[in-house]
Amino acid sequence: MAEQDWKANKGVFAAVSLPTLFWIILFFLVPMAIVWLYSFGENKGLTEIDISGTLDNYKRATEWLYLTIFGKSFAVAALVTLICLIIGFPVAMAITFASEKWRPWLLLGIMLPFWTNLLIRTYALMMLLGTQGFANKGLGALWEGTSWIKTLVGLQPLPTWEPVQLLFNNFAVVFGLVYVHLPFMVLPLYAALDRLDRSLIEASLDLGAGHFRTIMRIVVPLAAPGIVAGVMITLIPALGAYLTPDLMGGTDSQMIANVIERQFKKANDWPFGAALSFLLIYAMFALIAIQSMRKKVPEVR
Amino acid sequence: MTETARPIIQIQNVSKRFGKVTAVDNVTLDINAGEFFVLLGPSGCGKTTLLRMIAGFELPSEGKILIDGQDMAGIPPNKRPVNMVFQSYAVFPHMSVADNVAYGLKIAGVKGSEIKDRVAEALELVKLGGFETRMPDQMSGGQRQRVALARSLVMRPKVLLLDEPLSALDAKLRAQMQFELSDLQKKVGITFVTVTHDQDEALSMACRIGVINKGEVAQLATPSDLYEYPANRFVADFVGSVNIFEGKLTLDDPDKAAVDCPGLGKVYLNHGVTGPHGADVGIALRPEKIYLHVPGEGKAVKAAAQDAPDGYNFARGKIKGMSYLGDITLFEIELESGACLRVSRPNLSRHDQDDFTWGDKVSMHWRADSPVVLLG
After folding, report:
1. How far apart are CA A178 and CA A174, in angstroms?
2. Would you tell me how many other CB atoms lie within 10 Å of the CB of residue A184?
3. DSSP string, B151-210
4. Fewer Cβ neighbours under 10 Å: the N or C end of chain B?
């Protein structure tokens, strides 16, 4: 695409960019700035905040208690991203190599969950994982079946089935986050794999490599931009996840977003919540900075 | 084919169907060890499918492919003793030249020191010595193709398959690479099987050419036989430029024949045609086999034509179009019948083209052994 000099088309440039710019300033930058200012303030009464320039909120936010929650949020988000990558890569490959007829349907299948509200999807998952949910019922039926077969062959039956606690723990949070974020991983991976010249894969096979080696030595390195994009686009929202840990997590599985929420609501400590928010934002900035500094993979056609 | 010719690839009754489309239709073909074989045909004729079946990327719907006597059914591409140079070259963009060439050797488990020697040797062979540490994005298309060649040759395959190897190069480089590929093939002695739609490429490089049309072998011949003795209308028309006239066989003796063409008149041949009297045949006449007389020269020629030996054919017409190409001039001559004849004339002197102009009445002659009788 030819580069257009914006100076030559100032009117067009303004018409196109000003509404967006206005929107971003009014609804994104201004509220962010207010929150940022709050983070340097202190509570004076129930609704009054005095922006005094204090750093106390940040001092408190870097206390051990909150750092561990930050650390845990990172760990959970990283684990979720890793699981999404491990599941998402084969899925993206399957879509890429599916026939022309099937590909749009498979992509639709990946995007379909977006058509449902996150809250509803989360409740649906909770129904699945609850002690009376389908997962437990299925496991229970398997257990009973095994027990019945054992008595049939004359062995001691298994003890009575106790439902497994699948909900309200860290497992549920990771499970829920993986479920929600998988499409974010699959789509950039698919985009990267779809651009890959098929003859590179054939050349690798032709030179004696098996399928596994071809994937590890040719497909993965060349899909690296897509992998990085997928990781970032999964890791960042997973890091700030609020709804899933709130609804599916137990008392020990709160993530940093839940802590922030509590400051703004129950604790009514907006300055402290703002400081925590900004620490999270700075952490995400750091991630994006690291990503943009990585070596560019040369592209050859 | 010499007595010692040994088939390295045997394609036996191979067909390939994609859904309802038959890409390759019952092809039987032997490719000999050590020859430079070219599969020539228009795009979509099935030649690339045939090549990909040899490599193992496509499986035949029917029939067998043997490489060096071994049936390739069920043998995946990575286990076949052939290597392929892809149309897009498929040089791995994230590896240096040396790593690209060493890729197959490392997988084959060749020792490090030997890899180094063989990579250097292969790069020397394709004239890329000293390029080991270059990345593919720092190289031209021609150089990347050499990397792809070296990467395949280093594996010492029994057969090297090349898919449209020169199609992405500019005209000058293509002509140079045609020579280089032939040289390389002679030097390494590996059987080359090339797919191309470019007849010049095929004629200049091949030992033998298999012309493919609509999934079938239209003719299998050496380049000169293909050009001078095309077996059918398709080959005559596809390989080189040609005038084709339809006619009826009116005389067929062992040593002479005549074909009556409504468009061209009676065409005499100095050899027999094994066809039934009155059979519908085609006459193919190459533009360069027709001698175009300079206007005025025609009178003397006409006089000569009165007692024309059976060895010559004559025709008259009017120059309808001329196109000066430097080395030759192409003429379009409208015959008295209204049909058009394409004639090419070498520009032996600098002023040759000045002798002709549009609308000139001209006469032509050609030898009685020049026309090709097309039965198919």
Report:
1. 6
2. 23
3. HHHTT--SEEEEESTTTTS-HHHHHHHHHHHHHHHHHH--EEEEEES-HHHHHHH-SEEE
4. N
Q: What is the residue whose two structure tokens read 């004696």?
A: A208
Tokens representing B5 are 């010719």
Please give, rounded to a whole number of angstroms, the shortest distance from the CA of B53 to a CA of chain A.
Answer: 12
Both structure tokens of A90: 């084969």
* Closest residue, chain A, to B56 (C-alpha): A206
Mutate to test the interface with B, among A101, A219, A299, A300 (most CBs of B within 10 A): A300
Q: How is residue A214 written in tokens?
A: 């071809």
Nearest CA-CA partner of B262 in B281, B234, B287, B276: B281
What confidence tens digit (pLDDT) does each residue in A206-221 have?
A: 999 999 999 999 999 9
Q: Residue B283 CA to chain centroid, in angstroms?
A: 21
Half-sphere exposure of A267 (CA within 13 A, CB side): 14
Q: What is the pLDDT of residue A250?
A: 87
Residues 6+ apart with CB under 8 A from A55: A40
Residue in A with minimal Cα distance to B109: A208
Q: pLDDT digits over B172-220, tens only?
A: 888 888 999 999 999 999 999 999 999 989 999 999 999 999 999 999 9
Q: What is the pLDDT of residue A300?
A: 45
Place of tokens 């986050």: A177
Write the residue in A203, A210, A218 that is nearest to B86 by C-beta: A203
**B255 in A contact zone (CB under 8 Å):** no
Cβ–Cβ < 8 Å for B119, B155: no
Q: Are B197 and B164 in contact (CB under 8 A)?
A: yes
Q: What is the three-class DSSP state of B134?
A: coil
| pLDDT of the residue at A301 | 41
- In angstroms, the CA A68 to CA A247 distance is 21
Determine, for residues A202 and B84 on separate chains, whether the beta-carbon distance falls below 8 Å: yes
Instruction: Give the Å distances, CA to CA, from B282 to A34, A194, B251, B267.
Output: 89, 50, 14, 11
* Interface touch B103/A209, C-beta < 8 Å: yes
Q: Tell whether B92 is within 8 A of chain A (Cβ).
A: yes
Quick check: A220 contacting B, CB < 8 Å? no
**Chain B residues whose beta carbon lies within 8 Å of the beta carbon of residue A300:** 91, 93, 136-137, 144
Distance CA(A175)–CA(A171), nearest Å, equals 6
CB pairs under 8 A between A and B: 74
CB contact under 8 A, A298 and B87: no
- Shortest CA distance from B58: residue in chain A: A202
Main-chain dihedrals φ then ψ at residue B268, nearest 5 degrees: -100, 140
Per DSSP, A3 falls in state: P
Q: What is the DSSP letter of B328?
A: E
CA nearest to A63, candidates A264, A242, A259: A259
Q: Which two tokens stand for residue B337?
A: 């019948």
CB contact under 8 A, A207 and B55: no
Interface residue A226 vs chain B (CB under 8 A): no
Portion 43-72 of A in contact with B at CB < 8 A: none
